[in-house]
Write a structure and sequence with these properties.
Layout (H helix, E strand, L loop, with lengths): L8 H4 L40 H16 L4 E3 L9 E7 L5 E12 L8 E2 L2 E4 L2 E7 L2 E2 L1 E7 L5 E7 H14 L10 H13 L13
Antiparallel strand pairs: 1-2, 2-3, 3-8, 4-7, 5-6, 8-9
């Protein structure tokens, strides 16, 4: 997921960090971003069943790619891999950062009187340079496993809630453009086309 008001790299280190946050792996290789329209982006992803060195290497590459693209979250399909896993480094509505890895995510959203929608702007690293309003619940919980297979659970508000929903959607083959009106999809396309020179083929490896 991309964010138009993402904190600069240097400022992230000074934001408060949630106790639920984990240290993300380093040393990964930046991979080219897979774009909307590529089949892997629009299909439910294969479940993670092996928590091995291959998965660890993939997760490290995903983290490196997310940071190179200045994103707040990234799913495996966005680097062309059919696997239900995502990484994130994202602040909540209070500016508290949570970092994590979630395999086989299961999303829980509020219902009834507890359900409140946030219609803020949303963007996607696989459709770079474009942002439109996308209504989503303002609180979300995701459960799954970390890169070692241990159970994890994260709850977020504000941008973090949006990120957890956005990335879980990716593992189900859904892009946020599927959730907006035809008018807003047209707006997204125009924005992306206008920004195309800033995001050439191979981005962010070309940055």
């Amino acid at each position: 997921m991309s964010e138009s008001e993402r904190p600069a790299e240097g400022s992230r280190a000074v934001l408060p960090v949630s106790p639920a946050s984990v240290d993300l792996p380093t040393g990964g290789v930046v991979r080219p971003m897979t774009r909307w329209g590529t089949p892997v982006m629009h299909e439910a992803q294969a479940p993670v069943t092996s928590y091995d060195d291959e998965l660890a290497s993939l997760v490290a590459d995903m983290v490196a790619t997310m940071y190179a693209a200045d994103g707040v979250g990234l799913a495996a399909c966005q680097v062309g891999v059919d696997l239900a896993v995502f990484v994130f480094d994202c602040p909540d509505e209070d500016g508290v950062v949570t970092r994590g890895v979630v395999c086989n995510p299961v999303l829980e959203l509020p219902e009834g009187k507890d359900r409140r929608l946030d219609d803020g702007d949303e963007g996607c690293l696989s459709y770079p340079g474009a942002f439109v309003e996308c209504a989503r619940p303002d609180t979300a919980t995701v459960r799954g496993q970390d890169a070692g297979g241990a159970d994890v659970e994260y709850t977020g508000t504000g941008l973090l809630a949006r990120c957890l929903q956005h990335e879980t959607d990716h593992t189900a083959g859904t892009v946020f453009g599927d959730r907006v009106s035809a008018r807003n999809r047209k707006k997204l396309r125009k924005q992306m086309e206008s920004a195309a020179e800033d995001y050439p083929e191979g981005w962010p490896t070309t940055s």
